Amino acid sequence: MVRKVVIVGGGFGGLAAAKALARNADLQITVFDRRNYHLFQPLLYQVATAGLSPADIAVPIRAILSGKSNVEVTLAEIDGVDLAAKTVRSGTRNWPFDSLVLACGARHAYFGHDEWEEHAPGLKTLEQATEIRRRILLAFELAERATDPEERKRYLTFAIVGGGPTGVELAGAIAEISRTTLEKDFRHIDPARTRVVLIQGGPRVLEAFDESLSRRAARDLETLGVQVWTSSRVTEVTADGVRLGSESLRAGTVIWAAGVQPSPIGRALGVPLDSAGRVVVGPDLAVPGHPDVFVIGDQAAVRGADGKPLPGLAPVAMQEGRYVADLVRRGVPAAERAPFRYLDKGQMATIGRSRAVLEFGALRFGGFLAWAAWLFIHIFYLIGFKNRLTVFANWTWSYLTFKRGARLITERDWRA
Amino acid sequence: MVRKVVIVGGGFGGLAAAKALARNADLQITVFDRRNYHLFQPLLYQVATAGLSPADIAVPIRAILSGKSNVEVTLAEIDGVDLAAKTVRSGTRNWPFDSLVLACGARHAYFGHDEWEEHAPGLKTLEQATEIRRRILLAFELAERATDPEERKRYLTFAIVGGGPTGVELAGAIAEISRTTLEKDFRHIDPARTRVVLIQGGPRVLEAFDESLSRRAARDLETLGVQVWTSSRVTEVTADGVRLGSESLRAGTVIWAAGVQPSPIGRALGVPLDSAGRVVVGPDLAVPGHPDVFVIGDQAAVRGADGKPLPGLAPVAMQEGRYVADLVRRGVPAAERAPFRYLDKGQMATIGRSRAVLEFGALRFGGFLAWAAWLFIHIFYLIGFKNRLTVFANWTWSYLTFKRGARLITERDWRA
After folding, report:
1. C-alpha to C-alpha distance for A33 and A30, rounded to whole angstroms
2. Strand order in the sheet with B93-96
3. What is the rounded distance in angstroms from the CA atom of residue A180 to the CA atom of residue A160?
4. Among A27, A238, A262, B313, which lies 20 to 30 A Cα-Cα from B81?
5. Is B288 within 8 Å of chain A by CB?
6. Minimal C-alpha gap between A130 and chain B (Å)
7. Rounded Cα–Cα distance for residues A147 and A131 (Å)
8. pLDDT at B394
9. DSSP output for A280-323
10. Phi and psi, residue A415, nearest 5°
11. Distance separating alpha carbons of residues B416 and B411, to the nearest angstrom
12. Which residues have a Cβ under 8 Å from the Cβ of B343 and sit 6 or more positions away?
């Protein structure tokens, strides 16, 4: 009998599950996503800073799975799950499943201040990346055109809220662009006088890393000219800049890299969530009481061997996807399932050209070697031979010339 | 004494003028554009059909001119010219000039039916190209998801209005994608059954070419599966498709490639325009009575040696730009100016992979050789070494694999 498997989300987790399941002829798999492409999110900041084009880091899900005849891909946003009837819903249409894998990921969050989004876009989608690119490049253009020195200074101030890997990578890249790429392009401003401020609520940047690497990253950022403001909490974001309690910073561009929240579909399930809104799953990643419904990736609250929640990283989602696929494929009953174990793949963050920090178990280092490892791993894990080649060529070119190939200010409306 | 030269527009004409003028230290040149990039428009249809990324065919004007210290670039839309005071205006700000070169190009036109734009976008900007790409790719997705066979058929019908080079290139590329690139990607539709209809008002496609090449292009298009409807005039465009007098065609996607109109800035000058709205210039490309104000490219009505208006092609604009730059540089008085002469560089259009038509004086041919010439010339004239390399690599890859690298359906709003 053919069993129907529904996978919601074509990110790292969903795709890993789909690929692992595709080998089985007695399964009929449908992957739903509201986008037609798989996005390599770790390189999204490169699109936001004009280093890569959207197509370099995104591949149609349909193309990735095209050779697998028992897998179909449907472009649709799933907005509800009926756990009792075993169906997923998009609008007025329902699709039945025997097994369900929810892998819808996370979006950025403003901790109850959604009105900040307009002034401080987050970086989770391609559209947001090109919008941030537009704002960064436009800021230099407006500064060049400005006649009032105060306005000029405001345009040349960039505030990045959040000192995790995304914030660190963005701050480093903006500082670098201003000091190298744009150096000779303007007549009325000196881009090297750009002020990039990285605002971190906690006492150090890259809090998930070892303290020695946080220090190293902060030092590297400062070498690039980034001002690192730790223990600084943003209390308001306006069109003019940010407010931090009684202090304030005038900034022409504010970028939000401070928080994420899981996809709302988890809430719609009507099952227990953790304080961050993630679905609390059992050790087999299934929703308690629903052994055929699995939640993986950023959407799931899973604890590691040390009792701490697993981080929102691609290797976590991929391992979870393959683990769940194995349970589904073999049809393992709930009572007989060995619990999921995460094999730690370490973590890394890059700080501009030639600098990065890397942590793998007890191994911790920074500098050029960490950057080379970062480069190699990110190219290796990109899906598609062509993307690997293009990204490698782009990076080689940028490294040699200090140029960035995608410095386009495109409008939001196609009729503009 | 340093003379101020203002160039409005960073297209083929404006850029050619700026480059030719930059050699002179006694000139201070400002290039205005409402975009920050120069766009290689002949390849725009490749972005619209997912073959290239926007950054492959666009380069920041600032980067192109960065080494030329007497040239500055200002991102601003010029909305008025005061011929008497010799200033250009953007909003409330005025910039003075000694010499002015207007090179603002053309946008697409609906012949008084601007309400058609929503249903049938034109192809003149990068935003329009990604919007058309979105619509083409989305049509296949919606067809795959459709349950009603009539709806499915409508989604798989593409109507291209206008049989000039852009219409021919778009129709050929869409037919090709459906028959090769997407062949194995869907489960519920056969993309090869896609219907592409090219609608041409006149009796033949590529009317500017010799009749033998029109016939050849039509035959090549039909080989690719395109239905060529000549002598068919669109009388209405709706959300459902197009109406042609008493006939109608249900189409999920309609693309407008039927007409252009010059930039409105020409009208604001208050000088005589031709019936198409282009500024009527003298044989020295200056506005009659204003020897220091030149209009070039698609915005100018210039007659060739045969008395016919020069076509809206890149070589025309570039030659005009260099001619005008020479007059300005040498400060030639109006009475002593030798008239502009266009050196015919021929014309070409491509019809999918391995097929093109080419006309150069008495030389006329089609097929693989014309396509190879098209390829070589388009790569050669792309600005920037990196773009040439990327486009060449992309095309080689597409040629070998039949794949297209930029199949992304991105949303219009970054908050989506």
Report:
1. 10
2. B80-82, B87-90, B93-96
3. 20
4. B313
5. no
6. 8
7. 25
8. 87
9. E--TTSEETTEEEEEE-GGGEE-B-TTSSBPPS-HHHHHHHHHH
10. -85, -5
11. 7
12. B319
What are the two backbone dihedrals, phi and then psi, of residue A394, each rounded to the nearest 5 degrees?
-60, -45
pLDDT digits (tens, 9 = 90+) for A96-109: 999 999 999 999 89
Condensed to tens digits (0 to 9), the pLDDT of residues B325-373 reads: 999 999 999 999 999 999 999 999 999 889 999 999 889 999 999 999 9
Dist CA B103 CA B13 (whole Å): 6
Q: What is the pLDDT of residue B306?
A: 86
Q: Contact at 8 Å (CB) between A329 and A18?
A: no
- Non-local CB neighbours of B2 within 8 Å, separated by 6+ positions: B26, B27, B28
Give residues 177 to 236 of B whose Cβ lies within 8 Å of A: 184-188
Give the pair of three-digit tokens for residue A358: 């890397």
Q: Is the dihedral of CA A376, A380, A381, A382 positive or negative?
A: positive
Compare all CA atoms of chain B with the CA of A396 and give the residue at the minimum distance.
B386
Q: B135: closest CA among B250, B255, B248?
A: B255
Using the structure block, give the residue that is written with the tokens 């490698």.
A392
Phi, psi of A270 (to 5 degrees): 75, 30
> Is the C-alpha dihedral spanning B300, B305, B307, B312 positive or negative?
negative
Please report residues of A whose CB lies closer than 8 A to that of B75: 138, 141-142, 144-145, 409
What is this structure's pTM?
0.94
Distance, CA of A260 to CA of B182 (rounded, Å)? 35
Asked if residues A277 and A67 have their Cβ atoms less than 8 Å apart, the reply is no
Provide the pairing of β-strand B27-33 with B71-75: parallel
User: How far is B288 from chain A, CA to nearest CA, in Å?
Assistant: 32
Q: What is the DSSP string of A97-124?
A: -SEEEE---EEE--TT-GGGTTTS-BSS
Taking Cα atoms as reference points, which of A250, A243, A151, A156 lies closest to residue A196? A156
Angle in degrees, 0-180, between the axes of helices B385-401 and B367-381, rounded to the nearest 10 = 150
* Percent helix / strand / coil, chain B, rounded to 5: 35, 25, 40
Burial of A144 (0-12, 13-18, 19+ CB in 10 A): buried
Q: CA A344, CA A338: separation in Å to the nearest integer?
A: 18
Both tokens assigned to B132: 């058309």
Could you tell me whether strands A236-238 and A58-60 are parallel, antiparallel, or unpaired per DSSP bridges?
Answer: unpaired
Residues in A 76-115 with any Cβ partner in B closer than 8 A: 76
Contact (CB, 8 A) for B143 and B96 = no
Local structure of A259: helix, strand or coil: coil
Tokens of B84: 């008497």
The pLDDT, as a whole number, for residue A14 is 98
Burial class (CB in 10 A: 0-12, 13-18, 19+), A334: middle
Catalytic member of A115, A117, A151, A169? A169
Phi-psi domain of B14 (left: phi exceeds 0; alpha: psi -120 through 50; beta: other) = alpha
The verdict on B58 touching A (C-beta cutoff 8 Å) is: yes
Are the C-beta atoms of A109 and A261 separated by less than 8 Å?
yes
Report yes or no: B281 and B302 within 8 Å, Cβ to Cβ: yes
**What is the distance in angstroms between the Cα of B127 and the nearest Cα belonging to chain A?**
4
ipTM of the complex: 0.92
What DSSP letter does each residue of A115-176 carry, written as one string? GGTTTS-BSSSHHHHHHHHHHHHHHHHHHHH--SHHHHHHHTEEEEE--SHHHHHHHHHHHH
Measured at the CA of A48, the angle between CA A396 and CA B414, to 5 degrees, comes to 145
* Residue type (1 letter), B143: A
**Cβ-based contacts of B35 with chain A (< 8 Å):** 409
From chain B, pick out residues whose CB is under 8 angstroms from the CB of A410. Answer: 54, 126-127, 130
